[in-house]
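This section describes the prediction task in plain terms. A model, or a person checking by hand, is given the sequence of a single protein chain and must write out its three-dimensional structure as a string of tokens. No templates, partner chains or ligands are provided. The sample shown here is typical of the held-out split.
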Amino acid sequence: MPAHRLPDRLAPPGQSRGTGAPLDAINTAPAESVRQSLLTCLHSLRWATRITAHRPYPDLDSLLAAADEAAYDLSPADVAEALAAESLPVLPEGTYEAAHTALNAAYAAYEARFGHVFVIHANHASPDETLNHILTAIRSRLTNDPEEERVLVVDELRRLAKGRLVELLRGARR
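The expected answer:
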């Protein structure tokens, strides 16, 4: 299931996904359905369980604040769990082969140094700037010590999760 869609099973009883408010779906759906949908935003069972357990949320800001707080509280094992399910950022269609080669080399250097996939929230970069944004960030972060990078990784995971959560709710509105 794509990360930007709430499954139909999240719709309140008697309503299809398109007729209920997205936040209502999060607040009223069965806990396991919500937890599974949240795992598409950040693959940390602890994070998804915590957000699910604190329902209902009165508004989107409250939900996003809870998502932030839960992300800040991730243990090293939770971060490792989330990173294991992350994929590398995707380059825009039409990117030159040489760019893919440069990016693959940077990814390999990063993984060799830190032992996990590189994560970055690049949604604010325009498609034309995505490659430069990712390469600049990865080169800069390769100079970090492991603890400094761990802090940045948690922040990037938090930003990715919030962005995906907003997209999940947008998809539910449709």
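For orientation: Confidence is low (pLDDT under 50) at residues 1-20.
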